[in-house]
Amino acid sequence: MAQEHDVVTRRPDRVRDAIEQGRTSLGIELGSTRIKAVLIGPEHAPIAGGGHDWENRLVDGHWTYPLDAVWDGLRDCFADLVADVERQYGIRPRTFGAIGVSAMMHGYLAFDGDELLVPFRTWRDTTTEVAARELTDLFGYNIPLRWSVAHHYQAVLDAEPHVARTTYLTTLAGYVHWRLTGRKVLGVGDASGMFPVDPVTGRYDAGMLAKLDEFVAARVPGDTGSRLADLLPEILPAGADAGALTPEGAALLDPSGALRPGVPLCPPEGDAGTGMVATNAVEPRTGNISAGTSIFAMVVLEGALRGHHPELDLVTTPAGDLVAMVHCNNGASELGAWAEVFRELSAAVGGPSDADTVFEALFRAALDGEPDGGGLLAYNQLSGEPIAGLAEGRPMIVRTPDSRLTLANLARTQIYGVFATLSLGMRVLADEGVEIDAMFGHGGLFRTAGVAQRMLAAAIGAPVGVGQAAGEGGAWGMAVLAAYLRSGEGRSLGDYLAAEVFADAAVDVVTPEAEDTAGFATYLERYTAGLAAERAAVEAVKPLTTTEENAG
């Protein structure tokens, strides 16, 4: 990709022609803290981008985003992209070869017709513990708290009035796609985080659907609405026709009227699926780790696991192959908060105050930290963390009087804190005998070359590769899925990525260093024991409020 990006950089006329002729692909991803758009040319290299910052809110015990914020953010992000195109190439894009939408997986959007029945409940909610436990026991298959079916069944158990009125359930990506195209569909990867998908049929598991309907009828008196199968989106694999941009959809994205309807859209996907695409990790024995507000590892399996584990989800790639997912609710948000503190300090003493400079300085300092963090422990839990046994979170730093509090150790342990819970889940996968040939990191955490990558390698005990587009993240992966709709030509997604997208890609691979690996192991042992302090903090220290905005 580096060579391709150089070509389009040297030849802006070629890019301009591609934009005018609609030979581009647009990917939009609604992440936890940022909505991002990436436009790619025929060679799959990014040629323009846009963004919009937003935050979730904790309202009445549920993490949520208002739907008005979804559309305000999408419009602002799209306008930012258009402005970038005009600034670089002197033209305004009026059409695209294809568009793809992705977003945070899981969660709960329940509709009666066009009416949203309750505020959007995101993947971050931990209010579904009873439902998740009962469904896991019923299916003999791990159903995490954040899955859509757990949200739905918890609403049934709680006798929420909206359940009987519900006619459609979907994810955030599915909702946006529906409004843009009129089609109630979902990519198979995102769908597999709503309800278990049978990888043989590529459909929701029929046996589990029947069990749940029977279970609900026996356990809950009265009318609870339609069968679950009637409420879920239609599943589509990568490359399938998922509809086209309607006039109403075009106006939602671009109220100016410049964007023309009729652009084809690929199946909407979750951020896990776009991460797999962005790292070329869709074939068995490959995997990736996406680090952002949450952090999760995806490992494509060669076959079914021996048993089910609460630390592991089973989902699919955008092509429908079985994937083991280690998902942690809490990723880099606490690290980002500390970076902001140091940015404010730098500004106060007259130093650099831009976030990128301060962030890189903090990461570079981490390289000088002691391998075990000098006795410091960093807990990054802003919200509940099921893998760590936490229903709620309290971010904190813990140290003993003889620990060594330095900038380098503080920075290193904050990065370790991002990876600690993930490492606990990855150990379960290793105990299952799952073998991994290649693991790739992506997301903004890897923008500072060689730092988070090196510490992640120590945390999982495996080489970690980072490619040229690692910092572009899932929006670029979604743009690639849109391009696959346009030019896949019957090839499998894996073959398309290998031949058309990553054939000449430069990947930097870091192998775990023995000293770092031993140091992280010591850190993780203390971290695990110290989770008792985190649980005590949850009990003793109550949030200032549960109704005002609480950044995640």
TrEMBL record:
Question: Gene3D superfamilies annotated for this entry?
Answer: 3.30.420.40
Pfam families cross-referenced by the UniProt entry: FGGY_C, FGGY_N
Q: Which domain of life is it from?
A: Bacteria
What positions does the domain Carbohydrate kinase FGGY N-terminal occupy? 26-253
CDD domains of this UniProt entry?
ASKHA_NBD_FGGY_BaXK-like
The family line of this record is:
Belongs to the FGGY kinase family.
Q: What is this protein called?
A: ATPase
